[in-house]
Amino acid sequence: MLRRVSVVFLTLVLVLGVAACAWAAGPKIVLDGAELWSDVAPFETGGRTMVPLRVVGESLFATVGWDPAAKKVTVVQDGKTVVLMLGSKQALVNGEARLLDAPATTRNGRVFVPLRFVSETLGCKVEYSPGVVSVVSPDDGSKAYLMDVINAYRSVKTVKIQGNYKEVLKEKSIDRTQTYDDSVSLSGWYDVPNKASYLMVGNIEVYSTGNKVYVREGSQPWLLAISTEDPLSDPNLISTDDLKDIFCRFLPDENINEKQCKVIIHKNIGQRISQNLEHLYNSDLQLLFQGMDHDTGGDVNFSLWKTRRAFVKTYVDPDTKLYVKRIMIYDQVSSDLLLGAEFERYVELVIDYSDYNGQVTPPDVSGAVAKTGGQ
Q1: CB atoms < 10 A from the CB of 280, how many?
Q2: How far apart are CA 21 and CA 23, in angstroms?
Q3: The whole model's pTM is what?
């Protein structure tokens, strides 16, 4: 899989030596508990925190437009239109004049505006503590609705799925750009009350039941791969205990297979998935360095990645409140390595849900043998 290719490439970089990644330093922006990523750091001037408008605006699901000729910025969200002019302390909100704490300006090719004005104009509250600007967006009822969706899902016996997993790793250096692209289809089912699942990923079958995971590739015999909790055994990707920690919002309804579906987006869970994958990278590298007799001095973080986007979109049948589709997207970057290279990683997972409470047949794994050694 591509993840292994990525690990090998990053390992070579680490063995040759790397400089510290130079991410933009400045106040952190935290939206509903999730830190926002920006390639250009916020800065303070005259006691005001200036932020890159597109980062904050799009994170609040606003549309941000920039007219370089007129030096005008337009932000549209839920029927509200905000217009700002570079160098001016006056803005228009639905045609009505408002005064900014500081004029909109540019830095490193990005438009910066006072955080408090944009956030509060778009219906948010802002709190400041040293080094952290916290933005709290209004409750639109999506968390309560998502709780109902989770409970509805838990009431069914089975569900069938079909989808696709795509990962792209791009390496850019002075003399070349190289891309590793991997895409694989998947299908299977979940037995919800028994926490059992069956997945066909490419030509690899994975069957999980209880705390046992069985794997088979092609016509090979089944192997008892691991005895642990299968991370794919719960397609919720979220528990009710996690709801208080996630950034969750309704998006406009969408038509899926001639059915008008409710759409919810949540962000923190996507970031947790990303962090789990980073942990896999770090674990692989830790084992490699130990095998090379390098003393890492204990628990070392080898992560080179910075998450710039991570979210899950859930499409729900409004009549049954059951899942119709889930889309998980995240992309990460790392840069300023000693080798002069930059890396980008994009992952997209799309799953369609169907045939709730249909019949499923577990595979026969009675002759499975325990897997020993290797990966």
Answers
A1: 11
A2: 6
A3: 0.71
